[in-house]
Specification:
heterodimer, A: 517 residues, alpha/beta, Spore Coat Polysaccharide Biosynthesis Protein SpsA, Chain A, 2 domains, 15 helices, B: 134 residues, 3 helices, rod-shaped
Chain lengths: 517, 134
């Protein structure tokens, strides 16, 4: 009877102490239903052959194959897969360590998710003297983030039939061969499960990608190539490059046909000092959109409260003479209702909720967001919002511990946990200060809830999108200023907290995509 | 003939103008109505989705409460078992204690008996001699 797991390990001149630690952690696995497929890729260190033969004699679950010539990691890994008879392959490098419960945890996960095809876990790094550091707290399956970084990486466990179906590892992707394999796997299945536990310890030895990202720059070139081919297979028109400084793949989607965007701005004509100048917020926002946006197919719908000075309307018509709609609003303040009125006055397929206390920074902000929303299952896209002093105001929402703007107050230069402030990624919510939404999906979920007139309306609509199976994307590549608190009180009422908890309490402190505070 | 046609066009155009205005007004009213209906649709959908979310939340809390109840029952059961063990130990303790008391009473009875007292009296010289020797 075949094992549940086939651990796959290509071997090529590992440091002896690291290999022995690796062996220890496999042999000491709590879960016993495994086999270990080791393929030596013509190592030059003489101890390796002896040791591998010893291991094979030691435990009948260990299979060893010696290649007749050095073929590189792809060939060796594929030979190891050829030896595998288990239901799932477990990828393990010859100098890394498994957590002693790793296979047990994965087996438990498979029991709970019998249709799982690909399972990945959190990981950390381990020094030569066994000190653990750099714990990577990963999100649940995040396809957008996966385009920028191979965050799944270790530990990865994949259904063997699927690995064979996609053609195993491919030549030409050395250094990113696993990334290329995972990308092809994710094209075939949506049954991808994350185990939020550190089950893999990546040895940081000099020259390994764990210790120095620069040591394997060639790997990033292969990673960009893997992503490029993946996007081509998915028929996504995008420009792919890699950012050496951040060790990230950059994907810039090309927006060929510009769908119309209705930018909806609720306002009461508030004035505030911005950069030391007394400014009418909404006029400043509209002026910045007109002046800076390279995207051309948009209209601006301003929903104005009764009592807004006529001068504000006149100024708006001056800065935006051709594509401005003014909608009067004469009910008591309700941000959600104002947004809904803006949306029903729009005939565009995309609507963008925008606070009047914002100002465009990046000229390609709209096309960047429109590019992301083109995916069928994406409902909402938001940008990076900065305070007046350049610190981060919002990098998406986080529901860990409480509902809040992720990394609010951090420096714009911060990379965030594993560079999450520098890449487009799935989030559990976005601030309503700037959010691009598909109009039909907005209608599908009932728009902004009027029971939240002031606070949490953005959290609520985000939860509704998630509940309906949509993804929400945050991107740092579209940037705006958000001069927050100029138009709303800072504190939320207990009744609002009670209301949001009564609807979505189960989702709070249970963020799928941002498990760090 | 051309002049007649021009006059006729003017007439028809001026005749249609009020009708066109009327239609425009009706269209505007219809558009307003559509928007009102769309707003009502949004509200209705939000209400139903919000209610479903609240029910979902209640269900989660219900299951959490059930789990807590289950845990509490296990806890209570463990406590009851512990109490039962304590009670059994107590009964055993009482039994041993009663036995102990009975033996003490028996000892007292022996010490107070005439034969014990006579025996002690008879043995006095022996005890004195033992003290001298030691």
């Amino acid at each position: 009877m075949s094992s549940l797991f086939s651990v796959i390990t290509p071997v090529y001149n590992p440091p002896q102490y690291a290999f022995e630690k690796c062996v220890e952690t496999v042999l000491a696995q709590e879960f016993k239903d495994w086999e270990w497929c080791l393929v030596d890729d013509c190592s030059t260190a003489p101890w390796i052959k002896t040791r591998l033969n010893e291991l094979q004699a030691l435990d009948q679950r260990i299979k060893v194959y010696f290649r007749s010539e050095n073929g590189g990691i792809v060939a060796a890994s594929n030979d190891a897969i050829s030896l595998a008879s288990g239901e799932f392959v477990v990828l393990l490098d010859n100098d890394d360590e498994l957590h002693l419960d790793a296979l047990k945890e994965v087996a438990t996960c498979i029991d709970a998710n019998p249709s799982a095809d690909y399972i990945y876990s959190d990981e950390d790094k381990i020094t030569e003297d066994g000190k653990h550091f750099d714990e990577f707290v990963k999100p649940n399956w995040s396809p957008e983030r996966f385009l920028s970084q191979n965050y799944c990486s270790h530990l990865s466990v994949i259904r063997t039939t699927l690995v064979n179906q996609v053609g195993r590892f491919r030549n030409g992707f050395d250094g990113a061969q696993d990334y290329d394999l995972f990308l092809r796997i994710t094209e075939q299945t949506k049954n991808i499960v994350h185990i939020p536990k550190v089950l893999y310890h990546w040895r940081a030895v000099p020259g390994s990608t764990a210790s120095a990202n620069n040591a394997k720059l060639y790997a990033y070139s292969a990673a960009a190539k893997a992503v490029d081919e993946h996007l081509k297979r998915r028929r996504i028109n995008a420009e792919v490059s890699f950012d050496e400084a951040l060790s990230l793949v950059r994907v810039k989607r090309r927006v060929i046909a510009q769908p119309k965007v209705s930018i909806i701005i609720p306002t009461c004509g508030t004035r505030k000092s911005i950069f030391g100048v007394d400014t009418c917020l909404v006029v400043n926002a509209v002026e910045s959109i007109e002046r800076k946006s390279s995207y051309t197919n948009f209209e601006i719908i301003v929903v104005v409260d009764k009592g807004t000075p006529q001068q504000v309307i006149t100024d708006l018509e001056t800065v935006c003479p051709d594509r401005l709609k003014i909608i009067d609003y004469d009910k008591p303040f309700n941000f959600s209702d104002k947004c809904n009125i803006g949306v029903v006055n729009s005939d565009a397929p995309l609507v963008l909720m925008l606070n009047d206390d914002t100002e465009v920074i990046s000229h390609d902000w709209l096309e960047t967001m429109v590019g992301h929303i083109a995916d069928d299952d994406v409902a909402m896209v938001g940008p990076l919002l900065l305070f007046e002093d350049g610190r981060i105001q919002s990098a998406g929402h986080s529901n860990t511990h409480s509902l809040h703007n992720f990394c609010a107050g951090s420096s714009n230069k911060d990379f965030g946990h594993f560079r999450m402030l520098k890449l487009a990624r799935e989030v559990s919510g976005l601030t309503g200060a700037c959010a691009l939404i598909k109009r039909d999906v907005y209608f599908e979920v009932g728009g902004m809830s009027e029971v939240f007139p002031l606070a949490f309306n953005d959290c609520d609509i985000a939860f509704k999108f998630l509940e309906h199976g949509y993804r929400i994307i945050w991107t740092p590549n579209a940037r705006l200023f958000h001069f927050e608190s100029a138009t709303r009180p800072e504190h939320v009422k207990p009744s609002e907290v009670k209301l949001i908890m009564s609807r979505w309490g189960r989702k709070i402190n249970n963020d799928e995509y941002c498990k760090i505070h | 003939m051309d002049d007649d046609q021009a006059v006729s066009d003017d007439l028809s155009s001026s005749d249609l103008k009020p009708e066109l205005e009327l239609l425009r007004t009706k269209l505007q009213i219809a558009e307003q109505k559509i928007m009102q209906l769309e707003l009502s649709l949004l509200q209705s959908r939000d209400f139903s989705i919000g209610t479903a979310a609240e029910i979902g939340e209640m269900r989660v809390r219900h299951f959490q409460t059930k789990d807590q109840l289950k845990d509490a029952n296990v806890h209570i059961k463990n406590h009851l078992t512990h109490i039962k063990r304590l009670e059994e130990a107590m009964v055993e303790l009482n039994r041993v204690s009663a036995l102990h008391r009975a033996r003490l009473a028996e000892l007292d009875r022996v010490y107070n008996s005439a034969s014990w007292k006579i025996g002690r009296f008879v043995m006095i010289p022996v005890r004195v001699l033992r003290k001298i020797i030691n």
